[in-house]
Amino acid sequence: MKESFSILKKIELTASTISLRSDGILLFDVKPNVNVNEKDAKEMVDAAGLIGDGKKYPILIIAGKYTLADKEVRDFAAGEYGNKYTIAAAFVIKSLAQKILGNAYLKVNKPLTPTALFDSEEKAIAWLNTFIK
Q1: Is residue 81 a contact partner of residue 110, using CB atoms and an 8 Å limit?
Q2: Contact 57, 92 (CB under 8 A)
Q3: Helix axes 71-78, 38-51, angle to 10 degrees
Q4: DSSP reduced 3-state for 104
Q5: Contact at 8 Å (CB) between 36 and 69?
Q6: For 83-130, what is each residue's pLDDT tens digit?
Q7: Which of these, 83, 89, 22, 80, lies nearest to 51 by C-alpha position?
Q8: Using CA atoms in the order 28, 102, 80, 127, what is the torsion angle rounded to 10 degrees?
Q9: In angstroms, what CA-CA distances link 66 with 22, 44, 73, 89?
Q10: Is residue 41 a contact partner of residue 71, using CB atoms and an 8 Å limit?
Q11: What domains does the chain contain, in order, with CATH numbers?
């Protein structure tokens, strides 16, 4: 069952679209065929702060088909600045390569906030909803 929500605010970036949903989740919709770099990641965090008025939110990251993030992005995303506006992060992945990188990210980078990988948006949203007060 699809939950209904509306998009309250949205910012288009080079590598992604960042949206604030009416259900209290910040959506990072990463474009397909993109190798996300550190500049892209910083733009995403800054956009999250802008549309979320500097508050922390559960973050839903939907990886585009064939999209990957380099080592610097994984280091950045796991750290303090990368989690500035994050309560918890759920990655929806679409490929084996993303799953391998995602598992390495969880084990090696050890993000500061609760982070999990999912194969469906519905499962990711259900998990993120446990962090909404």
Answers
A1: no
A2: no
A3: 30
A4: helix
A5: yes
A6: 999 999 999 999 999 999 999 999 999 999 999 999 999 999 999 999
A7: 22
A8: 60
A9: 29, 19, 16, 20
A10: no
A11: 7-129 (3.30.750.24)
Encoded tokens for 78 = 């796991």
- Would you state the structure tokens that stand for residue 107, as one six-digit string? 């084990």
**Residue linked to tokens 């999990």:** 116
At 66, is the secondary structure helix, strand, or coil?
coil
Residues in the chain: 133
**Tokens describing residue 26:** 């910040």
Q: Measured over all CA atoms, what is the biggest interatomic distance in the chain, rounded to whole angstroms?
A: 37
Cα–Cα dist 48/41, whole Å? 11
Global pTM value? 0.93
